[in-house]
Specification:
alpha/beta; six-stranded mixed β-sheet; 10 strands
């Protein structure tokens, strides 16, 4: 298999180092999954400012192993900033982020990938100049296995997300819906314990959303991956998640089941504004 294009990605994208995978992660996964309920991610009093703008305000919540938790909020609520802080792309100003009880607040993205955390982005970002298969191989660079085994694993993932027949196409030629699937396959190639999905349904039609929702549920059920999800499409969102954390202006305003959240007064106010009584003339 020709991997010249893959080597170019390694050279220019140091976030994907070729160091050996953290071997202790697999043992840790088994130990934590053997417990009935365990906290995989804990956020305590997290704060982030951009100049004078307080984007994340004293945020605290937990994610248990095996959960699908949704982050809900209007545009500008701070959801993507939260993901960027959790995954090491930008630093928090204060507070703590714990991964299975260990502080990870100051760790870089590639270190967090090695611990079992992967994400997708609002905008699809395929590696231009690489085909679909090579894009997925990028996510496997930390694995200490042969090129042949990496290729087989990547093809399995492409088959899983429905892209096996397009493996040799240039990634930038995929439809937007297929690029979403490619983002997911590339994240899965890192063998995550926690997957953070930033608006996976953005820009997709009804049939594409239904298909991708089914795929996410299947991955959660079969691979026992914990999922933290941002989405604006409420119907699909509510069908996927077991619990919601609602944000507005950087603060958590409600937390609970999907039904609890959509009827919560603070959430209704954040989306449609305050309701004022109508006085008769």
């Amino acid at each position: 298999m020709a991997l010249d294009g893959l080597q170019r990605v390694v050279d220019f994208h140091p976030v994907f180092p070729t160091s050996r995978v953290d071997r202790t992660r697999l043992a840790m996964d088994q130990a934590w999954r053997s417990k009935a309920v365990s906290v995989i991610l804990e956020v305590n009093h997290l704060n982030k400012h951009f100049g004078g703008l307080h984007v994340l305000k004293n945020m605290s919540f937990k994610l248990s192993t095996g959960e699908i938790v949704g982050i809900l909020g209007p545009n500008g609520a701070g959801k993507t900033t939260l993901f960027n802080v959790l995954t090491g792309f930008i630093p928090a100003d204060s507070g703590e982020v714990l991964w299975r009880g260990e502080s990870i607040r100051r760790l870089k993205p590639h270190v967090l990938v090695g611990k079992g955390m992967a994400r997708t982005f609002q905008l699809c970002r395929p590696f231009v100049g690489l085909n679909v298969l090579e894009n997925v191989l990028v996510g496997s660079l930390r694995s200490n296995v042969s090129t042949h085994e990496l290729g087989e694993r990547a093809m399995q993932l492409l088959s899983q997300v429905g892209l096996a027949e397009k493996a040799m196409l240039p990634a930038e030629l995929l439809s937007y819906g297929d690029q979403r699937r490619l983002e997911l396959a590339r994240a899965l190639a890192t063998e995550p314990s926690l997957l953070l999905l930033d608006e996976p349904f953005a820009g997709l039609g009804g049939a594409e959303i239904e298909s991708l929702s089914h795929l996410i549920r299947q991955l959660h059920r079969e691979q026992h991956i914990s999922i933290l999800l941002i989405e604006h499409k409420l119907r699909e969102f509510m069908q996927l998640v077991s619990r919601m954390v609602a944000m507005d202006f950087g603060e958590i305003i409600a937390e609970g089941t999907p039904q609890d959240i959509v009827h919560h007064p603070s959430v209704i106010e954040a989306y449609i504004g305050k309701q004022h009584p109508v006085t008769p003339d």
